[in-house]
Amino acid sequence: MDPHRYYARMRKDGHKLVSVELAPGVSATLVIDYRTAVQILNDPEHFPADPRAWQNTVPADCPILPLIGYRPVPARTTGPEHQRYADVHTEAMRALDLYAMHGHVEKLAIELVNSFCTDGHADLIKQYSFPLSFAVCNILLGCPPELGDRIAEGMSKIFENIDAETGSQIVGAALMELLALKRSTPGDDVTTAMLQHPAKLSDEEILHQINSQYGAGIEIQQTLIANTLLRILSEQTLGSNVLGGSMATRDALDEVLFSDPPMSNFLITYPRQPMLINDFWLPANQPVVIGIAACNTDPHINRGNILGNRSHLSWGLGSHRCPAQDIAYLVAQDAIDQLLDAMPELELNFPGDGPTWRPGPFHRSMTELPVVFPPSPPLNIQPLRT
User: How far apart, in Å, are the Cα atoms of 219 and each of 9, 46, 262?
Assistant: First the structure.
């Protein structure tokens, strides 16, 4: 499915905001105009991210509540509460050793490539982008693999809207075990940094912070890697430029973040009172969803030449801008570079006409990324950095 065809249809009559349903009976407004999105995201006083007033109006079993319902995290709070949580995230991320992370990603990439390089075929989501992103997240948070396995299982249920409540219970129980481990055995990791932060978050609050880190660190990170690999392998000019070194992988990542970001619709706010914007009335306490992909490709601001342009909204904007974008860029770029260096003859091998995209109102993620390549022996090299 090509969502940009639908965005063009929405714009045909001059629409900048469109009434949509996020789930049966759950009304919302989708913003498809870049300047309108910037106006909303820079006005948290009138457009707070706290969903509680809206949440009180929907059934407890609403299928999207596990993903967008209230949690004490930066993305779901406003004002002093938001700032308190945002400071914890920002300072925990700032303390990370990015140089050491290069070595971790390189080692993980080599191990994963060696696990399938003799086969001549692979699913680069199941066998590469997902396990690499999952392992990186475990390293950042100081989580043992056995706990991480349970967290990944729960996160998958939440993002797929398949038994999301069970997914939340699985994640919550595993994260409580992680907190207990980090209290007894502190480490050089994000979880320990949050536990030791002067804000003195409660165990429940820290559980929610780590939950949100896993949601982005696994699901969004692996999708960014996979969507960029799809673009490199399917577009001859871009692929040749990246493989030939005339275009940086960072620029390929930004092309994907403009047109096919992992979260194509998100950055949700809830106006406190009815608001009139561009001759469109926004009801009070009803979700206003930023169509990130639609806004990024708004023809009024995106005329096709985006090389070196990082004005996309895929990392958020204003006070709710993602604090982990530096590490996300690093992991994605290193993962892609390592794979393409080791296997430059990758070719897409979809069984039908192209990729199948996972259903859902928020993400833009494939079900699989099958490739074929000449079988080769395992890499017999050591990571350059440790």
Answer: 29, 30, 8
User: Which stretches of 69-129 are DSSP H helices?
Assistant: 79-94, 98-116
Tokens standing for residue 201:
């978050």
Do 66 and 164 contact (CB within 8 A), yes or no? Answer: yes
d(CA 153, CA 238): 35
| Beta strands 370-372 and 280-282, pairing class | unpaired
**How do beta strands 17-23 and 280-282 pair?**
unpaired
Degrees to nearest 5, angle at CA 36 with 307 and 253: 25
Q: With 0.85 as the threshold, say if the pTM is over it.
A: yes
Q: Which of 381, 294, 302, 296 has the alpha carbon at shortest distance from 342?
A: 381
**DSSP-derived secondary structure for 6-28:** HHHHHHTTT-SEEEEEEETTEEE
Per-residue pLDDT of the chain (386 residues; tens, 9 = 90+): 788 888 888 888 788 999 999 999 999 999 999 999 999 999 999 999 999 999 999 999 898 998 899 999 999 999 999 999 999 999 999 888 888 999 999 999 999 999 999 999 999 999 999 999 999 999 999 999 888 888 878 877 776 667 778 888 888 899 889 999 999 999 999 999 999 999 999 999 998 899 888 888 888 999 999 999 999 999 988 888 888 888 899 999 999 999 999 999 999 999 999 999 988 999 999 999 999 999 999 988 876 666 667 789 999 998 889 999 999 999 999 999 999 999 999 999 999 889 999 988 999 999 999 999 999 999 876 654 44
Token pair for 338: 């390592």
Q: What's the first-to-final CA gap in the chain, in angstroms?
A: 42
Alpha helices in 142-279 (DSSP H): 145-159, 164-184, 190-195, 203-214, 221-234, 236-244, 249-259
Q: Which of 332, 376, 375 is nearest to 120 (CA)?
A: 375
User: What are the b/e assignments for 107-124, b being 16+ CB within 10 Å?
Assistant: bbbbebbeebbeeeebbb
Q: How far apart are CA 139 and CA 154, in angstroms?
A: 18
Pairing of strands 370-372, 347-348: antiparallel
Beta bridge partners of 31: 17, 290
